[in-house]
Amino acid sequence: MKQAILKLDGLTCPSCMQKIEHAVAGVAGVQDVKVLFNAAKMKAHFDAEQTDADHLANVIQGLGYTVESVNVKD
Amino acid sequence: MTEFTDTVKEQYAAEVAQSDYDHKHPTAGAMTNHIISNHVVMTNRLRQARWFVKGLNAGQLAATFKATGAANFDWIDRIGQDLLDEDEIPANIASEYAAWNMLAENGEAKYLDAAGMIDGIIHDFNTDNLFVTRAIALAQKENKPVLAAELTALYGWNNRQIRQYQALLGNTARVGLNEEDEDNDD
Question: Mind listing the pLDDT tens digit for each residue in B76-125?
Fold first, then answer.
């Protein structure tokens, strides 16, 4: 499993971040989604054979929110 | 039953459309409506705690919850008036409060012991502050200094409640509340 760390707009509404968390958790191959409200970050582990971090960012942007950066850790 | 004219319906439809847009492109007004909704739900939680608290200190705690609830109610009105002053529309119906609050309201909480009730209240104030700090930044960005100042005062009041309720549990202000981000992954 790899870990995606997505930095959102620092002013994203905290309840929107919860909605984002639920949307990302629904993507096949994603596990352990965690939202850090103060840091405006979302962290998720994912199976690289089923999805990738850019797809997760696209899911968030498709909801109408801004993703400021995408990092991946092995 | 009250009949709403087409003009009234159009006014409300326009308000809902604007509210949805403001939420996705966050504005101080939209974020402040989350805060009002949080505090409306907080009023219910404090009343619930006052009605159902048990134990040797129940009377004293009920009085404390009542005093916090009364002050909390005043904040709802103050912040709502500030939004009206800025030509914004404060949340004012139950469905808006239900949709926009982010607190942990539930019926089970009435059966908690006093410490559990207090812990829930502390976490609600802490959750509310997530919105308050964002709303302050947005109000400053939008050049709304009075709203920013009022929200800053609310932030101070929330922090005071957190510290005082934590003290009842034998804790200092931030015990169990700070977000953990162990990685340096920016």
Answer: 999 999 999 999 999 999 999 999 999 988 999 999 999 999 999 999 99
Tell me the per-residue pLDDT of A25-50, one tens digit each, with 9 for 90 and over. Answer: 999 999 999 999 989 999 999 999 99
What is the overall mean pLDDT for chain B?
94
Select from A13, A15, A71 the Cβ nearest to the Cβ of B185. A71
Residues of B with CB under 8 A from a CB of A: 23-24, 26, 30-31, 34, 100, 102, 127, 130-131, 134, 137-138, 179, 181, 183, 185-186
pTM of the complete model = 0.90
Nearest-angstrom CA–CA distance, B8 and B109? 40
Give φ, ψ of A69 to 5 degrees. -155, 155
- A8: chain B residues, CB-CB within 8 Å: none
Which residue, among B102, B126, B138, B151, would best test binding to A if mutated, counting the most A CBs under 10 Å from its CB? B102
Rounded-to-integer distance, Cα B107 and Cα B111, Å: 8
In the numeric block, which tokens belong to residue B138?
A: 């947005």
pLDDT digits (tens, 9 = 90+) for A65-74: 889 999 999 8
- Considering only CA atoms, which of B46, B50, B23 is closest in space to residue B125? B46
- Predicted complex ipTM: 0.82
User: What is the C-alpha to C-alpha distance for residues B54 and B45, in angstroms, rounded to an integer?
Assistant: 15
